[in-house]
What we know:
The chain is mainly beta and 255 residues long.
Amino acid sequence: MKTLFVALALVLVVAPLTGQQQKVRDCSKDNFEELESGRLTLRFFDAISGKPISAAEVSIDSIGDFTTDEEGKILFAPPAEDGSYGVSFRSEGYVPTDFPIEIETGSLYFNRYSISPILDVRFLRVVLDWGKSPRDLDLHLLKEGGYHISYRDMSTAEDGAARLDRDDTDGYGPETITAREIGRDARYTCFVHDYSNRRRHDAAELAQSKATVKVYGQGKLLNVFEVPRGRPGNRWDVFTIHGGVIGEIGSLHQD
């Protein structure tokens, strides 16, 4: 009599990481890398999809030239001196983007940057990045007498002229709005609202969020705005547009 042995294969199914879990894991890896090797990490993401950008060419003034890996990151040794260093990002299908990074006490002040895919020269794109907290910052674009683009009001303007491309509710961003046309006689206001602390009158988390707003238009990066530090408030009025001219507001206050 034969004894039949049946081997049962145990298949372990691992659920994919959520967006927040992936971002937290990235942050932990970056911290470990910094402690283990002394190298700093810069990460680059698509401003529409939020996915890492691989095989991009990145140059950092006085530091060197690099190519992003499959996680959209580069590693580099910190410079001898703290300060601001210019970064040049180039990748096929993306708008050439130059911006500064800050290195403080041998560490990066912020290391996650979202880059806009190439867009029509007539379009305007606004991209918001920030840190781990608050979890939910909301980007708004208001056209006086016209539309109000945000997660709440509408994802697409009634005339199809503007839309919320990406909403992020679990920290870091990006959150992105694209306007297909900017009227020269119209007035626009862009602001960021700290939805996580919307009911707190003494909230200071927005000022501590490391939030950055990039404005793309005319086929290039036009402006980079950083949230004011050391002030309370859950609303950051970032900039206005009138007559086709972008003007910084830069105020924090309670909404």
